[in-house]
Every structure is written in C-alpha cells, then in structure tokens.
Amino acid sequence: MQFSGNKPRSHTYLASLLMQNRGAFLIVAYRLRVRTFLIPIFVTSLVFQGFQTSAQTSSSDRKQTIPALLQREHVASVSFAQIVGGKTTLAEAYGEQSSGVATSTATFYNIASMSKPISAEVLLRLASKGRLSLDEPMYKYWVDPDVADDPRAKLLTPRMALDHQTGFANWRRETNGKLAFTQDPGKAFGYSGEGYQYVARFAEKKTDESFESLAQTLIFNPAGMTHTAYTHRLWMDGNIAQPTDKDGQWLKPQIATQFVAADLVYTTPTQYASFVESLMYGEGETPAIRNLRDSVLTDRKAEMCVGKLAKVCPDEVGFGAGWEVIKTHGKTFLMHTGLDEGVFTLGFFETGSRAGVILFTNSANGPRVILPILKMLNADPDFISYLEAQV
Predict the structure, then answer these.
(1) pLDDT of 318-353, one tens digit each?
(2) 146: which of 179, 272, 320, 330 fits an S-S bond (Cβ 3.0–4.6 Å)?
(3) Domains plus CATH for the chain?
C-alpha cells in the first residue's frame, strides 16, 4: 500500500452521484468533468425496487435488502451509524472493504470532505477557550507565500475560511498550482479546501501546536475517538475500505503523510457519530459559539431554491462554520458530504431532536444507496424531502 496525500486531478465521469454544485449537494447522472456546473436531472434507485417505509426496517430485513441494494447499484460496501436522542443506537456494515474481505463497523473509511466539520470544530473550540478569535486577521500569524504580495491576504479571517468566503479556489491546482484569489475575501461563497488548510496553518502558528495535536486534544480524546486520524497510523493497515470506481474496480487508497484539514481523515461511522454527539451537547463550546455553528453564515437560498427545490425551499440554507445548514419546518439540520475518487460519504443531524445518520461508502456509486438506506432507517422525513427535492 502506498501512502500519499496527493489528490486526483479530476474525475472524468459521474453516474447518479450526489455532487457539489458550487458547494450545493445535488444528484446527477451524466458523464462529465467535475468542474462542469451540474443540473439535477435524474437519479436511479431512490427507492430500491419500490421499497418504501414510514417505520424503521428490522435488522433481519436490512440484512436481506442492503446486500441486494449494493449489488444492484455496484457499491462495494456501506457502513453506517444512527444517532437517536443524542446516543448512537445502531451501527451496521455490509459488503466488502477489499476484494474478498468483508467490511465491518470497525473498518476505516476515508471520509473525504467530511473531514472539514472536524477541522472547523478545532477552530470553534479554540475560540471558545479564548485562544483565538474567529474575526481576527490571520496575516499576523500566517500568510501563504503564494499570496504574500497580495494585499487581500490581510483581509482573511478564520470565519471566512470556515464558511467558504476566502476567495480561494477549491484547490490551488485549479489556479495553475499556486494559491490565488479568484474573488475578494468575504464577498461571496466559494467552496474551498484551500481555505481550510489556510486556517489550520493559522491555528498552528497562533497556538504553537501542530494541528493534529490540537485535534487530538480538543476533539478526538474528549469524544473517545481512539481510531481517527488525519495521517497514516499503523492501526489502519489491513483494515481500510479500499475505494472502487463506477465499474467496481479496486483503487489504491489515498492516505495522507501530512495532514490535510479539508480531506482524507480516516475513521469509522461510530467514531464520527461520537464526534457528532459531542456537538449535539455543545461540548467544548460556549453558547455563543454553539449558536454560531448552527447558524447560516453564508446565505445561499436565492441560488439554491430554483426549479423543483423552489417549491419546498427551506426557510434558510447555506454554509455555517463547517457544515451546510438547512432550517426548515422549525428544524435545524447540519449536513456534510465527502467525495473523493472511489469514495462517497454523508452525515447529517438535527439539532433539536439530536438525531442523525453517518453513512460511509467506498464506491464512486455510493450516492445511489443514500436515500434508500435513510428511508430504511426512518431518518427525518423533512431531511429526506430536502434531498429528494434536489433530484
């Protein structure tokens, strides 16, 4: 196994994928390049073989239905955890983590961009402790050499990074391999992994601690996340969910040798659920920071509520500090997805009921099984309706 933090330059295809369209999560069925702006036009298997339910299916039913769903949709494996009333009540895994090797609830998955909420929470807990301010200029502690001569670097704050308003592209490879502003900071939404890496470097300089050490102290240790990491650990070896492409071909896992704040964290759904439980109870956060996390900081309602979604438009929708925030029917949902080559992940929770689902797949076709499984688990119908409206 090779360990590398390098990211694939592009995916040349997507098939029924829950994708990001300028940061919005949409379902598409096209052969196209990732940088193309997408239109949600079609999806297969929203309900597997006509399966519908208003109550959670039994474990025995899922043991029959989910393997058939995975086979039908060409998904190598799925592992998920469900939280009800602020506690993880269910954890199951189906399929293969690698050729001929069954996955389990202890198998480690690359969670891709679901790494971002963890990194964001590091900053929020540092702010709660008074070790930094979300609105202080970062240039006093960190300026990336690529933008050192651009006066706009002095405008950047941690808050802009967390709610995707730095003005950077997603990755610097999109700007000829150098970090550069594509728009002025603080002016408009622009989904950016580079922004997360930037604010993580700032946190390191401000606290004089490595970002991985900060995450371990502030997030992983308190939540009991003993097997969650940004970079390679020996305990990962032999127990990683190997990614697969749309044709089911096994791919080499991407494992970072240096931390990436926006990507490539490895963990299990139950460990991630422990992280989410800590958020549900506001652990390590002041009330003001907790309220900030649950708020829409970058409003995207006007651009997202078009077409079919306009009929069921949430009251508020956009990005908060680390999560996409959806407010509808008196509920507040926090959601994030992850998409890397041969990987798709999704997690969400509702802040009031303290209920949610964490779901990882090691397949480019992973989005095809999301809604069927959420329905089997009797996940919140308002959240399911929000996803379905984007089809």
Answers:
(1) 999 999 999 999 999 999 999 999 999 999 999 999
(2) 179
(3) 17-116+228-388 (3.40.710.10)
